[in-house]
Amino acid sequence: MGLGLFTEKFITAGTFICEYAGEIITKTQALYRQKLNKIQGNMNYIFCLNEFVDGRANTNFIDPSHFGNIGRYINHSCDPNSEIMPVRVDCPIPKLAIFSCIDISPDEEITFNYGLNSMSITDETIERVPCLCQSAKCKGFIPLDSY
Ligand SMILES: C[S@@+](CC[C@H](N)C(=O)[O-])C[C@H]1O[C@@H](n2cnc3c(N)ncnc32)[C@H](O)[C@@H]1O
């Protein structure tokens, strides 16, 4: 699973933790970069945000690999202590904000569910990544977007 993000301080439920900051890229760039990451054995940090905005399906790809912040070290958990949500302030392009959904103690790892804003997998040809979250609610695989 590699690196993760841990808190030194107590975080109360509902607190803004950090942004999942990165470059906004196109679907073509996302697919290209994802393939390149795989070939080069690099970690895949691209987050695919699926939303319904004004009744329409809307997808944004955020890549913190080259320009980003500590948010990129947050791992997936099937029983997370945080949530990621799109926030818009006078701009159609959202920022991804991570908020605690329960109280988090010092030295605990910060996690969110990668799947809440993604589509479920229907394509069996997509290679699935085993989930190492070790929670009792673990579903066995990291949720992946079907792109
Ligand atoms: C946003 S990064 C998280 C930080 C990453 N672990 C690192 O070392 O930089 C997302 C990547 O971490 C890995 N990852 C995150 N959560 C995981 C989990 N529950 N089980 C296995 N791998 C996980 C996957 O390779 C995923 O593509």
UniProtKB/TrEMBL annotation:
<dbReference type="Pfam" id="PF00856">
    <property type="entry name" value="SET"/>
</dbReference>
<dbReference type="GO" id="GO:0008170">
    <property type="term" value="F:N-methyltransferase activity"/>
</dbReference>
<dbReference type="InterPro" id="IPR050973">
    <property type="entry name" value="H3K9_Histone-Lys_N-MTase"/>
</dbReference>
<dbReference type="GO" id="GO:0032259">
    <property type="term" value="P:methylation"/>
</dbReference>
<dbReference type="GO" id="GO:0008276">
    <property type="term" value="F:protein methyltransferase activity"/>
</dbReference>
<dbReference type="InterPro" id="IPR046341">
    <property type="entry name" value="SET_dom_sf"/>
</dbReference>
<keyword id="KW-0489">Methyltransferase</keyword>
<protein>
    <submittedName>
        <fullName>Histone-lysine N-methyltransferase SETMAR</fullName>
    </submittedName>
</protein>
<keyword id="KW-0158">Chromosome</keyword>
<dbReference type="GO" id="GO:0008757">
    <property type="term" value="F:S-adenosylmethionine-dependent methyltransferase activity"/>
</dbReference>
<keyword id="KW-0949">S-adenosyl-L-methionine</keyword>
<keyword id="KW-0808">Transferase</keyword>
<dbReference type="InterPro" id="IPR003616">
    <property type="entry name" value="Post-SET_dom"/>
</dbReference>
<keyword id="KW-0862">Zinc</keyword>
<feature type="domain" description="SET">
    <location>
        <begin position="1"/>
        <end position="115"/>
    </location>
</feature>
<dbReference type="GO" id="GO:0005694">
    <property type="term" value="C:chromosome"/>
</dbReference>
<dbReference type="GO" id="GO:0046872">
    <property type="term" value="F:metal ion binding"/>
</dbReference>
<keyword id="KW-0479">Metal-binding</keyword>
<dbReference type="InterPro" id="IPR001214">
    <property type="entry name" value="SET_dom"/>
</dbReference>
<feature type="domain" description="Post-SET">
    <location>
        <begin position="127"/>
        <end position="143"/>
    </location>
</feature>
